[in-house]
Amino acid sequence: MFFLIFIILVFALYQLKSLFLSSWYVSHDGIFHLIRAQEFFYALKLGYFPVRWAFHLDNNFGLPLFNFIYPGPYYLSVLLQFFGFSEWSGIKALIISSYFLGGLGIFLIFKKRHKYLALVSALLYLLVPYHFLNIFVRAALGEILAIGIMPWTWLAFQNLVNKTKLRWYHPLPLFLLFLFHNFLSIFFLIFLLVYLVINKKLRKETISSLLFSFGLAAFFLIPMIGESRYLTSIVNQQASYDYQSKAVSLKSLIYSKWGFGFSAIKSEEQMSFQLGISNILVVILGLIISLIKPKKELLIYLVTFMAAVFLITPQSGFLLSFFPWLSFAHFPYRFLFLTTFLTPLIAFEVFEYCYQKNIKPSFLLIFFLLSLALYNTRHYKRPMLSLNQDQIKQELIINQHTTTTTNRREILPQWVKGTRRFGSEIKLSSDQLIVDVQSDKTFEYVLRINNQSNQNGHLFIPQNYFPSWQVKIDGKKKKEFLFPSEDGWLKLEVLPGIHNYRVYLGETFLEKLANLISLLTLVILTRTEAKYLIMATRKRYKKGKRGSK
Fold it and tell me: Is the pTM here over 0.70, yes or no?
């Protein structure tokens, strides 16, 4: 088996060999992930955990970016940075590892049924064109890692369905999936639950694992949902962009010329969303086999595959009026994640059927499909343009104070009005205020203010207001003295006389509650595992004692 795993590793490394030939490359979102990784590392060094705020974005006014954008990739990136990786080498390592681990997960799902057919299915998975679109064109880090962990999530639930006792590692893949991508994790979970219910496999252990996954990810999921009402994009109902403009025609899904541009329904040639010719043939073969000998699992895979394809096309637009939450995927083509995951599952069922029926040309069929997939993707496994380290640093300088989002208003707090000017300074409402700035770091302002007036004054701090900002006056927390100004700055109410003020980034009640839920879940999971190990040890001890007699 280890030799087969080695084949998957070598194959994966060969497919992504161009990533080893340069420091970084031009892509849609790649530079933004580097900036986010820098911001994440900065926040962790300051002692913020979990990380929620990006201090230098939006021209140093800061954003609650990691409260709403998947934080998982950046936790892993920071871990690699602690071991000496640069931002770009760390993210490349994550991309390569995720790509390989996705293929390995597919292999492990099927290895007990037939290890060689499992190997072929894993190789077909690694050749799905959407992988190369995400890696070399879009640099969609969250999607890359999410798709890579999906086979492991499936494997964990498959393991529990087969009457295995719940262990500490079973909830981890779904937990990581939640942290790797907000929307993909929810849609994958819907598919997983439907699959479990249809197959009557929703037992106590699977439900417990689901709850543990939710609990562990609560520190992110609860504020992401509960505090989204503070965002401009949600308040103004701009969260989904022009969803239908990103739909893809069926013709382009079957085949479209490879490109490095952006997507739009009228200019699809700039970016290819093809399913892959060999993958389409696999689905056709699956449909034929289902007509000959219907099998529940294969039918579920095929129906889901075709449903995902339909959701990507413009013809699915009418569904938005019935299911408006679909638009939270932002782009219809994101449902290609589901076809990418389902392709090797359908392929294995097809190969196994041919093998069991002793169909003689089955080996030739497998060889043909793999060869076709290799030929189809031969030009897709390279970036448009490579960058050296000096070019990367220049790109970072140009983009380091942006919001790192497609639309500036996507993660902007609702109180923010207009653009931000870099280098903005503290403003005073009156010349009666004498301010001694003892510390004006990006995360904390320590001020000694003498208000010579008999009335309250105001001080304006160049930070985007969000409810997580706190203030202490003479050492006592006074939340009501800090609120947003008309243009969304921090507005501090200043009392008459001399007082000490500390304005700092803290956490809201909801964020603290979410942290507590995650912590308690971790404690309960640890206790459950300890109980399992104690019982297993006692069982082995009793068995050994009987054996010695």
Answer: yes
